[in-house]
Structures are given as structure tokens and as C-alpha cells.
Amino acid sequence: MNQENDQDLVQHLEKQGVETKMVMGHPASLFVLFFTEMWERFSYYGMRALLTVFLITEIAKGGWGWNNSDAMQLYAWYTGLVYLTPLIGGMIADKLTGYRKAILWGALIMTLGHASMAFEQTSPTFFYIGLVLMILGNGMFKPNISSMVGQLYPDTSKKKDAGYTIFYMGINSGAFLGMLLCGYIGEKVGWHYGFGLAGVFMFFGMVQFYFAQKIFGVIGEEPGTKHAPSEHVHNLVEEDQTPKNVVRDRLVVVAVLMIASIFFFFAFEQAGGSMTIFAKDYTQRVLSGEAGTIFKWVDAALTIFPILIVTYVLFQLSTQIYSKYPMTVIATAISFAIIWGLGLWKVNREFSQDVTEVTVSWFQILNSFFIVTLASSFSKLWEKVWNPSGPVKFAFGLILVAVGFVALAYGSMSIPQGAKTASVSMIWLILAYFFHTTGELCLSPVGLSYVSKLSPKKFAGLLFGLWFTASAIANFIAGMTGSYIDMITEKYSMTVFFLIIAALPVAVAILLLLFNGKLKKMMHGIN
Predict the structure, then answer these.
(1) Is the bond leading into 306 cis (omega within 30 degrees of zero)?
(2) Does domain 26-222+287-357 bear CATH number 3.30.365.10?
(3) What architecture is the 243-285+360-526 domain classified under in CATH?
(4) Which of 171, 394, 86 is nearest to 264 (CA)?
(5) Distance separating alpha carbons of residues 215 and 453, to the nearest angstrom
(6) What digits encode the pLDDT tens for the residues 287-332?
(7) Which residues of 257-270 are buried (b: 16+ CB within 10 A; e: fewer)?
């Protein structure tokens, strides 16, 4: 669907004073949010990729030498609070600052957090201060940028799900590059360099968003700002005429989807916890000879091609907005020049090594790589081929994340009960991340879209905050579950540990499929 025959979308943008130029069939403003979120996720996932492995790495190698249980508990508290604070940040934006100012304040606080973590060698206090600032900054940033994406599209637009999927590609492009480069530099050069690098790109994300604010028209301005006619006001009037039982039913569906998401992310977020431990202690990561050479070429491709893809997206955006927003394009272009330099340096450094040791954090990039390569296919699937209801998409997501853990359980069968180390093939982690990614594409961007479509507009920030609260609960449970990996492995086996994680999402998926018809009726026409 192109701009010419999508007049509803164009009219929707015009009513809010949003730039109507399109990039790849979607509003140019979507891609400003794309790059803002991309660099924020670079910073978050770049640091997260290092967190667990840094804590459990021996003191002689620059880590803190924590045991797995303690590291997982800190991971649980950090990731849980990171996703809890958006509830407060959403309310602050709805009532006081508006979305734009909240995003800018959040980005600044997170930049300072990364700067603090870069001084972890000076004193552990800086490390903990950095974690606190990251938690607070994310609370202001995360729910409000998602809310702005939703307001770019009418609720009836068939492009809304596709728009969120494209936005999700931006999320994962940043996550990919952050884990790839921060993880590599942190593990192979110095932990503090990895932590500090994450903050550099958070700064660039803040700058490019700051200079592009006018592209959003009235979207994201402070509450009470007078503009006429505002689409925000139009939506509130619309909602006043919506029967209370319809609003209630839709909110019940949102609640059901949020609860289902907890079971998905409980499994999915093992990536930074128990799956990181599995990668460090139980996976064959030292490669030589032909295997090492093959990995070097694969790693080089994984480094260069995603950078090429997002560079192309930046080029497409720049052709549409450079004349009006040159500083936004220039800031992003500078950040991309740095990324290209670091990527090429990394590839050259690896090819100069005789023996390849795959970093622990490398495996986490697979999720984001698969997202970047598969997101457009899923977007086209929902838009043109098959577009089932939200609950059905969620059920598929839950089943697929479980399949990933079944693969890990099967691959772990050779590990003796209670073993502290092993050398399992990398293929099982690769398969797990592939299935987890396909599951994520069925659930996470769809979830964001449904929260936007089913929620009353005046509470949009709050409800996005609640969506991330569900993620907070899931992250906390995921980390605490991961802290039992040694105990369960010693008493039973690694296979049993992974099968336990697989079982819960499957049970919830079955319930969603059974109640799909009822949930569809309760959405009252929202598909």
C-alpha cells in the first residue's frame, strides 16, 4: 500500500501537523523514532550483554568473580527494575512533561549512567550508580517512544502492525550492534571500554531526536498545549462516545495479553542469564583450523551486512528529511561512521588471530540478527498473506520460544549431572535463538500494537507503562529462575532445567487458543 492509496494515514498525519513524507510506505517520522530507539537499545543491550559475564568472570581476568546465583540475582533486580520504572515514566509523561521531553530526559540520564559505569575500575560504587541511572533513565524513555509510534497511525490502519514491526527492527538493529561491539570490546579489550562505548551512542540517539522534534507536529507535546484541530482531542471525543462495556472488554483483552507476555519473556529473557552461563561454561567456543576460518567469515558477514541494512534505511530517510532536519541526519551519519570504523576494525582483528575464541556475548547477537533479517518478512506476512488475531499470534510466539528450549534441552543431554563445565556444540544455542526470534516476532511488536489499538488514548502512556511492568515481572522471575541453574543441574540435569522453562509457555499458549473466540469478541472490531 503506497502513499497515494493510503489517504486515511496521510489525513491522520496532516491533522496532527506531522510531516507527511513517506519512507518505504511509512511516515518519515517513524524512522526518526527508529534511530532514536536503535541507539537506546544499543546502549541497553550492549551493557546487558556484558553484565552477567562480567560479574562471573574471574578477578584475574578483570571481572568480579561472583558465583552464578549471586550474579543472576543482581541481573534479576536490574532487569526487573529497568522494566518497572516505565510505569512511572509513562504517568509523568501523560500528566506533566509530554512524550518528547520525557524521551530526552531519559536519554540524558542513561548517557550519564553509562559514563558512570565506565569508571568501574576506579570504584565499584560507580558501577552501581550507573545501574541506578540506567534504571531511572529507561523509565522515562521506554514507554513514551512506543506511545509516539502508535499515534502516527489511525487505529483502523492496516499498516499499524507493520509500523510497529519496522520499529521493532530498529530496536533489534541497535541491540545487535550494541551486543556485537560492546560485548566484543568489553570481553577482549576491557570491561570499562565496553560499558563506556554504550553511552556514546545513547548520546547520539538523544541528539538526533532533539533536532527532529518538529517532524512530529503536536504528537508528544506537553499536556494542555493548545493546537487546533488536534488529533489528540479528536481521539478523546471519539472515546467519550465509546460504550463503557466496550472500553472495559478491550482493557480485559489488554490485561490477558500482558499476562501471557510474562510467560513468554520469563523464558525469552534467559538470554542474558542462564543462557549466558550455558554459553560461557558449557559451550565449545575455542575454534581453530577450518572451523575457526568458517566462523571468522560468518562473523564478518554478521558484522557488515546488518550495518549495511540500517545504513540503507538512513539513506532513505535522509533523502526525505535532510533539507528540513539536517542536524538529525548529520548526527546519525557521524554515529554510523563510528560504527563502520569499529565494525571493520573488529573484522580485521579477528582475521589476524590464529585461534578464534568466540565471545560469550556473541551468541546474544543472534536474536537481533534474526530480527533484522526476518522482520520485514513477518511484516509482509501480517499485512498481505495471513493476519490472525492477536491471541493466536501470541500463542504461536509462546510455542516457538518453548521449542527453542526443547532444542537446548536435547543438546544438553550429553552433559553429566552436576557438571561445572562442558563443550556442547554451538548449534544448539544458535537453534534456540532462531526459534526464540520467530516467537518474539509473533508476540512482542504485535503486543505493542494491540496495547496502542485497544487502550484509551488519554491513558496510553500509563498502559504502555503497564506493558513494561509485565516485562519487569518476567525479567525478575527469569533472573531468579536462572539463579537455580546450578542447584537443578546438580540434583537433576541441565536438560531438566531447560524443559521446566519450556513447559510454562506451552501451557499458556494452549489457553490462548482455547479462548481465542471469546477474546476476539471482546475486542469489538479491533483486529
Answers:
(1) no
(2) no
(3) Up-down Bundle (1.20)
(4) 394
(5) 23
(6) 988 999 999 999 999 999 889 988 999 999 999 999 999 999 999 9
(7) bbebbbbbbbbbbb
